[in-house]
Design a protein that fits this description.
single chain; alpha+beta; Alpha-Beta Plaits; four-stranded antiparallel beta sheet; elongated
């Protein structure tokens, strides 16, 4: 079992309040969950209304598959037509038992 983890830092230039940020975060998280069957959570900068940090996690028996899923999520976020910009991301494949 292998775990694919990705931490994405996003800039929300159109966000004018925490309410706007929460709306974008919920919508994007739901779209990622539904499309890729992964776990998604906001992990940092909860009080900054123009910055969103999401973590994505998937479990797979094959490390290449875990890497592919995480890479596809990053590409999906980059290509998203939403009012957001991917600033940075980190990925890691954790080997399991």
């Amino acid at each position: 079992m292998h775990i694919g983890v990705c931490r994405m830092m996003l800039h929300l230039p159109e966000s004018a309040s925490l309410k706007d940020k929460r709306q974008v975060a919920r919508s994007l998280s739901a779209r990622i969950r539904n499309r890729f069957n992964v776990a998604v959570a906001e992990v940092e900068d909860h009080d900054l209304w123009q910055r969103l940090v999401l973590a994505v996690c998937c479990v797979s028996t094959d490390p290449a598959h875990a890497n592919e899923v995480v890479s596809n999520v990053v590409a999906f976020v980059e290509d998203s037509n939403r009012d957001l910009e991917l600033i940075d991301y980190e990925t890691e494949i954790i080997p399991g038992v």
